[in-house]
Amino acid sequence: QVGRIFWSLGMQTSARNALRGTVTHVTDGAVNAEVTLAVAGGVEIVAVVTRESVAALRLEVGRPAIALIKSSFVVLAKGEGLVTSARNQIRGVVAARLDGPVSSEITLDIAEGKTLTATITRESAEAMDLAQGETVTALIKAPHVILAVE
């Protein structure tokens, strides 16, 4: 019950990325389930959560939900035809790059005004020559996506 009160007052989180969307698919498994969330035109995020979470959050097709993703869980890659085990591969355009002495924060425009932010080492940002306007792919493992509902 306390959780419901918290949610009704508004959510705050340390996760840099909070993408609102709608559940489009739920695949049930023995222990976990795979939940697909449409967050923008042509952009879907897949999360692997427990069956218990699916029931508790009442995740079903058509239900609004929020995908929470820590920026440090987002890996960036350049190039076409990547073969990777990351379930989520989201193409985006670099909208901003903020460099610190150790890390760089890269914000991607992924569609319809929605953004996805990655925190990577500055060395990697420089090696990849990441600049505004560059097209890159964000890679996110499905178990790294947390789902929330209001």
Structure notes:
The chain is built from three helices and ten strands; from the N terminus they run H-E-E-E-H-E-E-E-E-E-H-E-E. The chain has 150 residues and is mainly beta. A hairpin with a 3-residue loop joins strand 1 (17-28) and strand 2. The model is unreliable at 1-9 (pLDDT under 50). The strands form two sheets. It has a five-stranded antiparallel sheet with strand order 3-2-1-4-10. It has helices at 2-9, 51-56, 122-127; strands spanning 17-28, 32-40, 43-50, 64-69, 75-77, 88-99, 103-111, 114-121, 135-140, 146-148.
Number of helices: 3
Provide the spatial order of strands within the biggest beta sheet. 3-2-1-4-10
Distance between the termini: 13 Å
Largest sheet, strands/sense/barrel: 5 strands, antiparallel
Overall mean confidence score, pLDDT:
91
* Shape annotation: elongated
Which range does the strand content fall in? over 45%
